[in-house]
Specification:
Largest sheet: 5 strands, parallel
Strand order of the largest sheet: 2-1-3-4-5
Distance between the termini: 57 Å
Structural class: alpha/beta
CATH architecture of the largest domain: 2-Layer Sandwich
Number of domains: 3
CATH topology of the largest domain: Alpha-Beta Plaits
Number of strands: 10
Amino acid sequence: MSKGSAGFGEEPVTALLVDDEAHITRNLEKVIPWEQLGISLIGTATNGAKALELVDVQMPDLILSDIRMPVMDGLELLKELCDRGFDGEVVMLTGYQEFDYARTAIKYGAKDYILKPIDYEELEGVVTRAAGHIRLRKREKRNAEHKWKKLSTVAYEKLLLDVLMDYTSVLLLPEEDLPELADYTLLIVDLDDYSQLARYWNERERKLWNFAVRNVLQDALGDMVYSALQTREGEWCILLQQPPGEGAVADATLRRWGGELQQAVKLHTKLTVSVGCYPEPLRLEGLAQAYRKLQRALQLSLRKEAVLSYEEPATAERSELKLTLWAITDELVGALKQKDAARMEQAIAALNRELKAIPEHSHLRVEQMLHFLILHLLREMRDIGVLSGEHETAVWAQLDRSVNAKELLETVRQLAQQIMQAGMSRKPSELLMHAALDYIERHMAHDLCIDALADHLGISGSYFSLLFKQHTGETFVEYLKRQRLDAAKSMLLMTDKSVTQIGKAVGYAERRYFTKVFAKAEGMTPSEYREKSTAKDARL
């Protein structure tokens, strides 16, 4: 058997020979220049039944098969391949007296046929053409997958994020805006103890750590067809695409993927994450509900470095309590986002009623849950930019002093009121700029321009430029360059990625241009920056 090489950067084509006459398969192996054609022979079979066994294991791209064979002939093999959805090419070998069989084979999907005695020059031409068709299909499939991967472009990511976060209904979307029919496997990656970690990070550090973790996740996912969305600080939602009707990914496989993501994050950032896996394939319209369920299960598990597969909760009292408190918190977050003071007060009153109804022996668990819900509330509010650093510091100080459910409930009330007041006092322009900075952070690797960002915010480009300079003290171009270079410096220190890969990750497609911009800003090339920092760390 020849291993073969495709040449010209093409993937090799694999072939299977099926004939009950051993001398014919030997001649086929020797006479056709398989390796030169970039074709790998993966086996031979003496009849259709044995060929099917090899097809199931080896999945060849090209099959050369005789028609008349014992046990299962070539036509039966062809019908069986058709029933199984075989998408490769089949070339039939037949004698002159079986010409009618050959025509029948073409009708059943054979690509071509060769009459015996075999004209090997003619056969080589047929094989070459068949391999060309196979490579063309592979290239088209690869391009389609690449196109899907690139659908994590700005518009598509926004659509997916809007659906996932339940900001829009799939039923209301124009048909042309919907992605191609597909099922999704949903995973959530959550940074362990994120609220506590973020307590000690300034805004710049938070951005850099979030950016670093997202890049590690993308690297770990490799060639899988996916979209990785940051749903909030310290939390990423990964949507893996699969053909519709393919069925659920095995639980063991999901857990293996989760473990690989955990290992990658720990290796490259020294941080730990927990991973939640939704066990059923999802359609677009089911993403929002599944996301909330999985997020809930992951957060309420109170376990670190876990890989959890979602299960519907039991109806035990404790599970019902968890879900009730979570539902009230969701209501409270929704009220604060919409600046609805009456709805906020109703949510707090509902929380108070639930706590009063809890038996005495459950109070310790309730205190743990309340503490967690405060952290969750902090995280949600930080993510939408309505919680100042001063307010957050004050909340942490109060949390350190709060020891029972009553005090924790009062902390919830005060936090909610502070957030409501801060939200009410924020000008529309401040909210627009918060959305703009968040957008830049999420899409740094893409081509960004003022007009696209202004269009996303629903304002004119000139008004956007004015607001942006007033809010940040920098022009859009200056700010974007600084953010990209900060992220690049972080990646140079934290990862072993090449300068080219880092440049692309932060939005510079060309290494030469990235190096030029970096050197002008930092006084040294990216490679020199990495070497200098590494040498400094070694001396410490």
